[in-house]
Amino acid sequence: MSLKVESKIGKSGCIDEDLFDFLSDFTKFVKLLPPQYQSNIEATTNECSISAGVMGQFSLKHLELERPKLIKIGTDSGKESLTIWVQLKKMDAYDTRIKITISLETNFMTKMMIKGKIQQFADSLVDAISQIPPQLIRQI
Q1: Domain that holds residue 50
Q2: Contact 3, 108 (CB under 8 A)
């Protein structure tokens, strides 16, 4: 059974290319997550291993990178498939819009238990990305 969640659309004051470069590096991307999601995460530039309670342990990696518009992240194995699309759209030099889509293949019971949490995660991630100051991206 497929669960698909789309975040609200956020607005960043960062240049789209700078934001893409920042978000496409897992070691930097993980720093954006709310503290409750940061526990038990190990990250390298191209891969991230997560221990996620009910969902168990899984690894995420880049599935597709289209600079500066799309970062597609996902699992490559396991019984439950997860894909996250981070879409960036340049509106102006310092106006980049952000949207996150999360797709998860899971059973009906798990879907019912986690749908709200996945939606909250997607929206909070957009909020976190939207609040990154342009000068911080260049420092990390």
Answers
A1: 2-139
A2: no
Helix, strand or coil for residue 89? strand
- What does the pLDDT look like over 93-106, one tens digit per residue? 899 999 999 998 88
Is the separation of the CB atoms in 140 and 29 below 8 Å?
no
Q: What is the CA radius of gyration of the chain?
A: 15
Count of other CB atoms within 10 angstroms of residue 79: 10
- Residue 113 tokens read as 């238990």
Count the helices and strands in the chain (H runs, E runs): 5, 8
What percent of the chain lies above the pLDDT cut of 70?
A: 91
Residue range 56-72, pLDDT digits in tens: 777 889 999 999 999 99
CB 99 within 8 A of CB 7: yes
Domain CATH number, residue 13: 3.30.530.20
CA distance 91 to 95: 5
